[in-house]
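Blinded run. Sample ID left blank on purpose so nobody reads anything into the name before looking at the predicted structure. Input follows.
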Amino acid sequence: MRFTGFMFSAAIITMACGVLAQSTPDAGPYKVINSVKVGGNGRWDYCYADADGGKLYIPRDNRVTVFDLDTLKSAGEITPTNGVHGVAIDTKFHHGFCSSNPVVMWDTQTLSTIKTIDVQGQPDGILFEPATESVWILSHSSPNVTVINAADGTVKGTIDLGGAPEEGASDGAGHVYIDIEDGNNVAVVDSNAMKVTAHYDLGGQDQRPGGLALDAKNHIIFSYCHTPAICVVLNADTGKILTTLPIGTGVDAAEFNPNTMEAFSSQGDGTLTVIKENSPTDFAVEETVKTKQGARTSTLDTKTNQIYLITADYAPPTTRPNANAAPATQPGQAAAGGRGGRGGRGRGQMVPGSFTILVVGPS
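Blinded prediction complete.
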């Protein structure tokens, strides 16, 4: 089932242009309250705050670095055999998983490896699905999703999403929503049947959704797009577009905080956009927090309501880019066709020791 947005496209684009023309807030309750240079080599991708376990997990190419959530001091390291992109935690069994190939499964209390799990495709995004106690490994190539039993690490099956997935979220009641970057839609998946039941069109063309957050209680999807840089807010039951709101450029992660009824998106241009859900039909950009250029991925600590972001400094390019090459990228962003934090065209090497964890919280 596909809910197309053709009838809404013109209206949505007009609305988006009108909204983008407005100035966004630059002052509000949130600000950067801590910045810690932790250094270390390696590119990065999604970070993950395990509020129950008190740990912050940060993938760094061939390993996962672990920090204490309160002190940001090193708490250990997990070493996959290949590139790692994200982390998911099952607090019931105290099992952690990272999207690498093979996938590594560990004990979150001791950080010791339990087993490695061979998967197909190119593991990238990852999420924990509580209704089925499973971990979903997302891949831009087939199979798009590999579903792993969180209790014992066995592979339950795979799912074809009909396109390249980016970020996803579960409502905890048997539904998973996943941005399809090259399909301009949000895939709706029945987690028990492991089958796509709908695609919600985002109302435009080549919007390239790169982040997704979910208000599970009120059935609201926040889908964050690159072109234009907007958040498309949808009803999770019907796919109806409720509104669009402006965000920064280079989005790569998003979260929803049910404690404050706010959705957050982190962008490579050095902004964190805060959208307030005043009601299930009323949404507004509450604040645009200045973070640091390249801080495109983020995670939420639901116990403290703090957001963690990661970035680094980069040296200028050592050679002049070819005139026909893709435009220079911002720190933490990839060149066209790639993901951020991985070298990219148009900039030099990461400055040694500059890798930084930022903490954003209420003033």
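Unblinding after everyone has recorded impressions. The mean pLDDT is 88.
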